[in-house]
Amino acid sequence: MKSIIHRNSQLYDTERAGFQRLALHEPDLVVPAASPEDVREAVAHAAAAGLPVAVQAAGHGLPVPATEGLLINTNRLSSVTVDPVTATARIEAGARWHQVIAEAARHGLAPLSGSSPGVGAVPYTLGGGLSLMARPYGYAADQVRAIDVVTADAEPRHVTPGDDLHGDLYWALVGGRSNFGVVTALEIGLVPVERIYGGALYFDAGHAGEALRTWAAWTASLPDEMTSSIAIIPFPDAPQAPERFRGRTVATVRIAFTGGAEEGEDLVRPLRAIGPRLVDTVGVMPYTASASIHDDPTEPAGYYATHSVLRELPPAAVDALLDVTGCVVEVRHLGGALSKPQSYPNSVGNRDAGYSASLLSPGLAPGTDTTALRPAHDRARDALAPWSTGGRLLNFLYGENATPEEVRRAYEPADYRRLAELKAEWDPRNMFRLNHNIPPAPHP
What we know:
Blueprint: E1 5-6, H1 12-16, E2 29-32, H2 36-49, E3 53-56, E4 70-73, E5 80-83, E6 88-92, H3 97-105, H4 121-126, H5 134-137, E7 144-150, E8 156-159, H6 167-176, E9 182-189, E10 195-204, H7 208-218, E11 226-234, E12 249-257, H8 261-272, E13 279-280, E14 283-286, H9 291-294, E15 302-310, H10 315-322, E16 328-333, E17 355-364, H11 374-384, H12 404-408, H13 413-426
Parallel strand pairs: 2-4, 3-4
Antiparallel strand pairs: 1-2, 5-6, 6-9, 7-8, 7-9, 10-12, 10-13, 10-14, 11-12, 11-16, 15-17, 16-17
């Protein structure tokens, strides 16, 4: 371990900062890990000093910020190697999806990456990972073949799903994120995709209601090869907003289809019939261009978010979403392979869901008091309650909403009990608690 950065260091702010800027980690110490050995030494130091541990790669999905302890910054662990024979990639803890996409594409392959190429691939995957190709291929977590992890005893371990000694640890890590150790690398499966039929359709505010109603009905009979979402976005009249959308509210339908272009054209025709498009980028594209589908912001920012997991999306639920004002509304179509049995069982929950509905208040300055934002988010979740499963998606739990009760909702009840028991086995002191925490089960 080359260095430990203290609060009074000039490097402290740089090393603790991630993409989410509403609140930042404020640990006592930061370790900028450049190797698995740095991680091992950091965990050993924390264990000896009785310090809790947080882990951060890109920092998009920041849970409750650390106000103490030791933060391991994995940003420098960014190696990506692809084995085209086995169609797998080995990705280190700080690698971003754009790196994995580029390396995989050289061999005609693609990872189950999400909408933003700057997201850390390892924490995204260990939290489930709802990819652009989720319906044909399932969660990114379902592609994990092996894990290199440093556990609370500062021991490095190589964990696989068929491992008689560590099989339970594999199951817990894939879905439990950093609760059971600091992952230094994953081996993941890649899929044989070079090109997709994808893009986005943008409609003016006057067509937002029709767009959401049409999209909701359209999703009822889609093949699994079609993954899509819709967002209603009130763009600010500000320089950070795309110039063509500044000061406007737009509805955008995002498409990623792994079937043929001709079939894709037929499937998208009802959406194009909604009305004139402000922009229509849907067509055949290399997977390396898939970031353009959602066109997510690339600059660090503060945001407050909540979400609901829904069984279905009937017209009354659509009306409830259309009543939301003042924030971004995004609905994702789930199902397909997300709900099917996995080759490598893991702890990712809520697989029976049909949709997720998220509310996002973006563009917040660091330290913004979110009190005034909460009522609108709470009203929307209450309005969607009749169709909610009561579940949550772990990667969508940010900041103050990553409470123990909300984290519990990300898992099936029996799985959560098993996770708590495994936590008691692998991390009985709950050293890895500055995260989406699963406390260890009490001793019987």
